[in-house]
Amino acid sequence: MTAANFSFALYPIAVDKVNCAPPTLEYIRRMKFAFVLFKYFPFGGLQRDFLRIAQACTALGHSVDVYTIQWEGPRCDDLTIHIAPIKALSNHQRNQRFNDWLLLELERTSYDTVVGFNKLAGIDVYYAADGCYQHKALTLRHPIYRLGRRYKALYHQEEAVFSSKSDTEILMISEVQKPFFKQHYNTQEHRFHLLPPGISKDRKAPTNAKEIRTEFRQEWNLRDNQQLILMIGSGFKTKGLDRALLALASLPEPQKSNTQFIVIGQDNPKKFLRQADQLGIREHLTILSGRDDIPRFLLGADILIHPAYNENTGTVLLEALVAGLPVLVTDVCGYAHYIAEANAGEVLASPFNQTSLNQSLLNILQKDKSQWAANALQFAENADIYGMPIKAARIIEQKAHSKKGLET
User: Fold this and answer.
1) Residue 7, Cβ neighbours under 10 Å: how many?
2) How far apart are CA 402 and CA 408, in angstroms?
3) Domains, the chain
4) pTM across the whole model
5) What angle do CA 109, 112, 116 make, to 5 degrees?
6) Do residues 302 and 229 lie in contact, with contact meaning Cβ atoms separated by under 8 Å?
7) More confident residue, 343 or 5
8) Strand partners, 116
């Protein structure tokens, strides 16, 4: 079987009823996978996807070893975690040393498939959460930038995955970046596999959503007529927090005094707290670090704002949808089209204009959002937005089969 004709049929492990022996087909045996990423922490979007795909693989009966430089948070009983003894003065040097160490480790242990969640040499499958580095280096950086060691290290890591000489299968979570990879590396079309979104079903609004909303708003001292704007995501600059603060500050005083803004993410908030002070909106802003009770915030808020500068996907947009929370988002986000398709918010067209964001925020805050919320919940019931982990696991299985020359 070649990589060009992957199928996605299920492969249940049947048992022979006569002699209770497992079937003789080798490809349905328990397989051993290596999952690789630079850093794991509980609240990153990439990290959550990594964990859900790993657990989908173990649920299929396979074993997963994890190789990483750093692991934060509780460890999972069904994963064997290897921490690399790597130190360096810069991130790109650390990552390169990790890749060198990893290649030696992979020579010592035989794996059916090696899955990378960062761009690395020596991986069989790459989960493409990040955009095309070479495209950004050529279009957004001064030419002198490309003379540095950091550029060369990151370029070679990306080239190892996307070069036409590579046979790494690429799991795409958005079509947005694929043309850039093909443009700069001549990557073959058949190596790209578009995954559906993988929203966790615990984000869906439960039957007691109204009670949860009431309790949440009481906990945060929000009056019934007050409006709560919510923003979620690590990397405040990329997500457009500066833009959101300007929009909040632009609100007419009566609306502003009746509006609160909660931001949740893993990042240094100091710069944005200073901005809020300068804009005179500090009393309306709360910035929280990553946490595990996000569904309560989605149910308790009135709008999710996501004016990102760039975003390969934007999983939080779909998490808001399935919770029935309307969204205000820029169209550069890979998942922004779902908001338009669901008719559950407003998508700002490029090029970005701050005045347009300001006016849209005001209009939405003054608008009856109940129909948007209903549209979002209806969309959540019918759209294919939950199946990413199992589809990714099946592609990983099939890469192992193709490496061994097995027909599926």
Assistant:
1) 8
2) 9
3) 3-196+387-403 (3.40.50.2000), 202-382 (3.40.50.2000)
4) 0.79
5) 85
6) yes
7) 343
8) 36, 126
